[in-house]
Each structure stands twice: as structure tokens, then as C-alpha cells.
């Protein structure tokens, strides 16, 4: 279960990561085989629909791993093809439509499908791409890789009649691979441009103080947790993670990192826990950034008093 504050952060982060991207035209590359798609992508997470979904109250969405599936008619997980579980979006009237809302920072997405013909499209900050799959295709896979955030994947069928249901398997999402460079972390921010940061003990948001309100450590200092996408962190990555803060006088401060890992139930989201140093007492707004293996994220403000 995610803290309510973190859920609020995530809903705002989707908007900010999209709106902060470049508005220049950039078409996405289309892949019709999974091996080529995998080679052009990194940090891929795959949903195979073997796990039961979560259904948020009153919204009518299916949710798996922080990915939301929605259609105008019931969407469910069914057992097909020798016991393999698939996602099915049922026909509504004379057409079928499934919209998949992807995590923030997604720039690569692909899926296996079991109906043809169908139209598969992505929504991006640029032009978007559409692929029509038909009976003559030898491939049951389609993938997209873009240098712009991909907000959603839309699968629709309006022929032949009667229109069949969408059957989907193995949805994969992650980031575009940029040559041999390590992946660049993206610091999650709220819809008002603040860093998505929580007190690591009581999971409250800013303002933060130097002294912890709940003192579980011997030094009584506050630890804050920052959230990043674009990298998949585990405890072994901690020596390669750095956090810096820049004050209004452009002075830089290191925030010692004490923990790194994945967020529970969100395999695509990583978290970094760091200690607020004494030098930042009464600092006010400081811009924080996260570095992983020399690649530094965007900056976003937090308030320290």
C-alpha cells in the first residue's frame, strides 16, 4: 500500500514530466519484433497479466504495477491459450478500444497481441505514431521507442464485424537506450514543480527541518526520500548514487545517501533516502538533484528550515 501523499505526488508527476519535455517534432521508431525493440530499450518492466489486478474504487480502471488499463466496456484478465493469462478488453457496440496509461518517464513501450486486424497508437509530446496490424502480418508484436515521453498506448478495433475483443499479453515499458551511455535518472516532481520528497520515517512532505520530529536514529537528523524514474535501483547501487542541493547563492551541498531501492508494488519507480546535513539549517528553498553513475537528474526545489 502506498502512502496517500506518495499517490498524490505520482498523479502530479505524470503532468510535469510530460509538460517539461521538448515540444520539437520527434517521431517514434516502430518495431515489429521484440528482439529489436529490446535492443533499442533499457530498464524494461514486463507485465504478463499473471497477477490479479487492483481496481480503484469508482474509477473503473484495472491497475497493475502502477499502469492503468481502461476501456468503454469491461476489461478483465482471462485464461486463454493453454492456461496463459491475457488481458481482455471487451467489445462495446461495434468497436473495441483499450487505453493504457503508462508511468511517467516512459519512452519505450511494446506488447504482444492476439487479434488482427487492430490499430495500435501511442500518445506522445510530439506527433504520436500509429500502426495498423492486419491478417497479412507475420508478427504479433508491436513496439515504440521515442525521445519524447509516451503517455499512453491505445489499441482499437472497429472491423471486421462482429468486432472481436482485444487480447493482450506481455506489456513491456521502460526507456529509450542512448548508445552505451548509462541511463539518466529523472527526479519525480509534483504538479506545482516541487520535488516529490517525503520524510523517510513519517512519510510527510515538505517543509523539512534538520532535526527529526520522530527520532529513530542516534544523530536525530532528518532523512528524506526522493523518487526517480529512468533507473532501476537496488541496495547494491547505493555506492554509485549521489544527492546534491543548491541554495539560492548557488552553493552546492552533498546529502549523504543511506538507502536506494525500488518502491513496493511499483517496479519502475526507484527511491533514494538521504540525510539532511547541518549546513542546510534554515536554507529555505534548495534545488535537489540525484546522480547515478555520473548521470545527473533534473533539479527540483524542496524547502528546509
Give the helix/strand layout.
Elements lengths: L3 H16 L9 E3 L2 H6 L1 E7 L14 E3 L2 E4 L4 E6 L3 E6 L6 E6 L6 E6 L4 E7 L5 E4 L7 E5 L4 E8 L8 E11 L9 E2 L9 E3 L23 E7 L11 E6 L5 E3 L2 E7 L2 E10 L8 E9 L2 E2 L3 E5 L1
Antiparallel strand pairs: 1-11, 2-13, 3-4, 4-7, 5-6, 6-13, 7-12, 8-11, 8-13, 9-10, 9-12, 14-16, 15-16, 16-20, 17-18, 17-21, 19-20, 21-22, 21-23
Number of helices: 2
Report the biggest beta sheet as strand number plus sense, adding barrel if it closes.
7 strands, antiparallel
**What is the CATH architecture descriptor of the largest domain?**
Sandwich
- In terms of DSSP E residues, the strand content is 35-45%
- CATH class bucket of the largest domain: Mainly Beta
**Level of helix content?**
under 10%
> What is the number of domains?
2
Shape descriptor reads: elongated
Element order, helices and strands? HEHEEEEEEEEEEEEEEEEEEEEEE
Low-confidence stretches: 1-5, 8-25
CATH topology of the largest domain: Jelly Rolls
Total number of beta strands:
23
**Structural category:** mainly beta
C-alpha Rg (nearest Å):
21 Å
Our measurement of the CA-to-CA distance between the termini, rounded to an integer number of angstroms, reads 30 Å
Keywords for this structure?
single chain, about 300 residues, mainly beta, Jelly Rolls, Immunoglobulin-like, 2 domains, 7-stranded antiparallel beta sheet, 6-stranded antiparallel beta sheet, 2 helices, 23 strands, about 5% helix, about 45% strand
